[in-house]
Design a protein that fits this description.
Blueprint: H1 4-34, H2 44-69, H3 71-94, H4 103-123, E1 126-128, E2 131-133, H5 138-151, H6 174-180, H7 190-215, H8 223-232, H9 241-251, H10 270-276, H11 278-299, H12 306-322, H13 324-344, H14 347-369, E3 382-383, H15 389-397, H16 405-414, H17 416-424, H18 426-439, H19 447-465, E4 466-467, H20 475-479, H21 482-500, H22 512-544, H23 560-575, E5 584-586, H24 593-600, H25 619-629, H26 640-647, E6 651-655, E7 675-676, E8 680-684
Parallel strand pairs: 5-6
Antiparallel strand pairs: 1-2, 3-4, 6-8, 7-8
């Protein structure tokens, strides 16, 4: 029997290999040609560490612009950079021997391998017999899978959940666009390419940590060990397991993702951010690379730095197209940093930063204009003090009602230190100890240190006093902390190294009580990550079997595992019979919307009752469309072919939970399906189709 877990592992590895030239070659070629970060004089390992983040920074917006206006130039660019990189690398790789690879480089390769294994284990569908359990992160990735498939067909894409309605996709989709490029030349699954992008995003983040230690922290000695330490610290999160265990033991409310205990004000772990929202992490890498390029140019006291300024602007533009929330955080930071430069009369760096901003604005202008009209919900930014629902609930149980808005604001303000302590844990302690060391003069408060503190402060100000409400989730409040988390991780490396390895640097190591606090937070942060990973992988299976109630899109008692297996089987069979451009239509009110979007790989005429018009399209047009489509899933004698012709639908997907399924005389049972099983039938429809059972 075909095993979907093995198929997913092989598919992700294949997609990861296909993405490798796109993720490495452009950064390697451009880094060498422009000598960014003194690229030509670096060791091969550092050249790779520079190449991947550079590719992630430059290529998303460049791919959009070339694919939009010069499609042939798009492939000319990648062919040229791959050729240049191959020519440059061949002499070095030719004489590379295993014995010349240091133990630290082997350690880095081991960590990369471990990350690949984590992605394979946590992003593939877990098959147990005829039951299939996708990861809980599929809740977010399902819509992106549809977008990735659409992006592989056309740039710019239309909203795949509102097909044939002239509804351009309005989403920060450039990371998906970049990852989808191999699909244009190879037969790859959109899901596999999207998940392979998670692998490469994690590798880019590891490289960014190394670059931060080298070019921001200014580390010169034992850099290899410190890089491994920094990468290892990516596995540490806050004290989330404490409130999660409290809620679980108190009310048997076990969360599928432990980060959600704090509602709309979570600070996501590194593992969680990579598995759930890699495009936000990719935007962080792009912004960080741009910032490092500008800082390095300023530190070298060069009269003018044209190449770094232009590349920094291109990187900022890519970040805008990958995550508007991370990019907004860096825009605010840039304005604050610019103000500080003006006060210090650092005019050369002022000019560099302003010019990079101009390049970013010009380079991103077309993409940004294409997003006009996307906001159908609340405001992108609004003032709102960071909340702490758990603390407010605890106070109310003590008899303090907190009924008025003023009293709630006051209570949440008092809870801010505890809120951040639980969310950041070890890294919150690092921030406090770092501040103490700076005040005591143990850390030089040089320009890089000032820039780092400005970035951390910016993230905390935004996360404390602003939120987004374009959708129900406070994405701005979640993602604005990524830059601060990266800086805190770099500081943690310096602190932990001085504690354990640098006997001559004890002056910078934490004191006795500081070490005790850090050790406790490290242990709890590790346990939090382990528990989070366990829940992310097992929550769908445990919920389906009735052991816990952890997520709203996996319904206990509905044979979720068998249904997922049935839906994926049917969609894969259908994809072999219909072209990628075919439109498939399911019931817009289906309970299994996540599974459909995850496995379909095809556009839909109406993805739900508003056709996901937040992603593009007129909701009023959708309303009329839904009024025509929904009846075919309820009425046994519905004119299915007429509806299919009206909206260019190639096939209809009917489930056992649809009312029309229950009537043995309905159109569902009078037509030969393209694919079918006990849970779902896919039936061709439209003009001139000989579909009656009597005709087969």
């Amino acid at each position: 029997m075909h095993n979907f877990t093995i198929a997913d592992c092989l598919g992700m590895l294949k997609a990861g290999i296909a993405l490798a030239p796109f993720m490495v070659a452009p950064g390697f070629a451009i880094g060498w040609m422009l000598d960014l970060f003194d690229f030509r004089h670096r060791r091969l390992i550092l050249q790779f560490l520079i190449a991947v983040p550079l590719s992630v920074s430059i290529c998303p917006m460049l791919s959009y612009m070339l694919g939009r206006f010069f499609p042939l130039a798009l492939w000319g660019f990648y062919l040229a950079t791959i050729t240049v990189s191959t020519v440059l690398l061949f002499p070095k790789l030719k004489y590379l021997r295993l014995r010349t690879i240091s133990k630290y480089e082997w350690g880095a390769l081991g960590l990369v391998t471990l990350w690949i294994i984590v992605c394979l284990a946590w992003l593939t569908d877990l098959q147990l017999g005829n039951e299939l359990y996708p990861p809980i992160e599929a809740f977010d990735h399902s819509a992106r899978a549809e977008m990735t498939a659409a992006l592989a067909r056309h740039i710019p894409p239309d909203n795949p959940l509102f097909a044939n309605a002239s509804a351009p996709l309005r989403y920060h989709y450039l990371w998906l666009l970049f990852c989808s490029l191999p699909m244009r030349i190879l037969h790859l699954s959109a899901r596999h390419v999207m998940y392979a992008g998670v692998i490469w995003c994690g590798i880019a983040l590891m490289c960014a940590v190394a670059l931060g230690l080298k070019f921001l922290s200014g580390i010169q000695s034992d850099i290899e060990r410190k890089c491994l330490l920094g990468i290892g610290l990516l596995s540490i999160t806050g004290l989330d397991i404490l409130p999660v265990l409290y809620l679980g033991l108190k009310s048997n409310e076990w969360l599928a993702d432990t980060e959600t205990w704090n509602g709309n004000y979570q600070i996501t772990s590194w593992v969680g951010s990579l598995l759930w929202v890699p495009h936000n992490v990719a935007a962080l890498v792009a912004c960080f690379v741009a910032f490092l390029l500008l800082r390095q140019g300023a530190e070298h006291n060069q009269r003018w730095i044209t190449a770094p300024v232009v590349i920094s602007g291109m990187a900022f533009a890519s970040a805008i197209g990958m995550s508007v929330y991370v990019a907004f955080t860096f825009v605010v930071f840039g304005l604050l940093w610019l103000l500080g430069l003006i006060v210090r009369k650092e005019w050369r760096e002022v000019a560099s930063l302003v010019c990079a901003g101009v390049v970013a604005a010009v380079w991103a202008l077309h993409f940004v204009l294409s997003l006009r009209g996307a906001a159908t919900g609340g405001a992108f930014i609004e003032f709102a003090l960071r909340q702490f629902p758990l603390g407010v609930a605890a106070v109310r149980r003590l008899g303090i009602e907190l009924q008025s808005p003023v009293s709630l604001v006051f209570a949440n303000a008092l809870f801010l230190p505890l809120n951040y302590a639980l969310e950041l844990g070890f890294f919150f302690a690092v921030a406090i100890l770092r501040l103490w060391q700076v005040r005591r003069g143990e850390i030089d408060f040089d320009v890089n240190e000032q820039a780092a503190w400005t970035l951390v402060t910016t993230a905390f100000l935004i996360g404390t006093f602003l939120r987004s409400s374009t959708i129900n989730n406070n994405d701005l409040g979640w993602r604005c902390f990524l830059p601060a988390q990266l800086i805190l991780l770099l500081w943690a490396v310096d602190m932990i190294y001085a504690w354990f390895f640098d006997t001559a640097g004890l002056r910078r190591a934490p004191g006795f009580w500081g070490r005790q606090i850090l050790a406790i937070c490290l242990a709890i942060g590790t346990a939090s990550t382990i528990f989070q990973m366990f829940m992310l992988r097992s929550a769908p299976m445990l919920t389906d079997r009735g052991s816990i109630t952890a997520t709203h899109w996996v319904v206990s008692g509905q044979h979720f595992g068998r249904r997922a297996f049935a839906l994926r089987s049917v969609y894969e069979s259908t994809s072999l019979q219909l072209p990628p451009s075919a439109v498939l239509q399911r019931n817009p009110a289906s309970r299994n919307i996540i599974l459909h979007m995850l496995y379909s790989g095809h556009d839909e005429a109406a993805g739900n009752f508003d056709c996901w018009s937040d992603f593009g399209g007129d909701s009023a047009v959708c309303k009329l469309r839904v009024q025509s489509i929904v009846p075919i899933f309820f009425l046994p004698a519905a004119d299915v072919d007429s509806v299919c012709r009206d909206y260019e639908i190639s096939a209809v997907v009917v489930e056992d939970q649809d009312p029309v399924w229950q009537d043995p005389s309905s159109w569902v049972w009078s037509r030969q399906p393209l694919a079918a099983n006990d849970f779902v039938r896919v039936i061709r429809c439209g003009v001139g189709l000989e579909t009656s059972l009597d005709q087969h």
